[in-house]
Amino acid sequence: MVLNIIKKVESDLDEPAQSASDKPIADTSTSGGTLVSFHYDALDSLIGRATSNGKEQRFYRNEELVTEIRGSASSAFVRAEDVVLAERQEDAGQTLLLLASDEKNSVLCEVSSQGLQGSAYSAYGHRSNEPLAGSLLGYNGERREMQFGWYVLGNGYRVFNPRLMRFHSPDNLSPFGTGGLNAYQYCGGDPINNVDPAGHTFIGRFLRSFRPTTASPPPGAGEIPAIFLSRPKANKAATLVPLRIKDNKRVLQQAAFYERDVERAELMNSPNLLVIKSRRDEFVNALRYGVKHVGQKVITKHAVKELKTKLKEMASIRDAERAADKEMSDINYAKWLRKIALENYDQPRPGLGQTRLLGAYV
Which of 24, 57, 112, 335 has the CB geometry, 3.0–4.6 Å to 9, for a possible disulfide? Predict the structure, then answer.
């Protein structure tokens, strides 16, 4: 889908004329505006745009912009734990920018071979030294449309204008949904303490030093199970992310696997019975905790990946065991069933004074 929009570049708020590096591209419309074609994919995500200078492509990972290609030039963005770290620009040569940001990821400083360049923003994200900034990222770590000074949030959903301090279009979740009564308002009128990366609903963002980690869990988290705190390096803290229902389902499935292993170990009098029981109880306790803390930041990204990977491994093992179980003879299966019956149902029934196998009394 291609959306053609005529952008009129005017002297907004009576500001001084822009420098050559910040001027809009050559006019292609008779009204003195600039024609920019924004390209969207089938999921309505902005994947590029076309101007008189050529075409541009954008690539995302986990809903975040990671690469941008403009003809022979390109930019790659480096993030870790949702924090902007660097930008690599390639054209005739290669330029590496190390980025320093605040608690909301707004780029405050760029360090390159040319030196250090700082930036300052108004409460709503208008940047003072736009012509001097080298990075494409700006306010709240979002990609800034250099020709207009706007931010297309939600991977192309809505345009936010820092000068007007509002969105250009209404939120489709307003006024009766989570978008709020004011369909054009940004961050509920409080951009200092909130961010709105999706262009729909703003969220609060605390100081990075107070983000929940394995070393400093959020209030009310209690004692987080070790299964949820798994990380590559045990001696280093890792950021906690919200626990999802699908994570609890994976814990439940693994607890069920261990429960079956316990039954088999008891049947075979395995010396590893206590170890297997301990592992099962660990997952059962994690499930109980998870049910009470869904949506809270109590699990690491590494633990999420481990649960997913381990579940696949256990499923493969279980498939092999099921194939072997099919080869079990009827006689052996009957003996196993009889043993289970004796252990669980061989108790006298009150009033009869006799015992029947399999719990069936006549």
Answer: 24
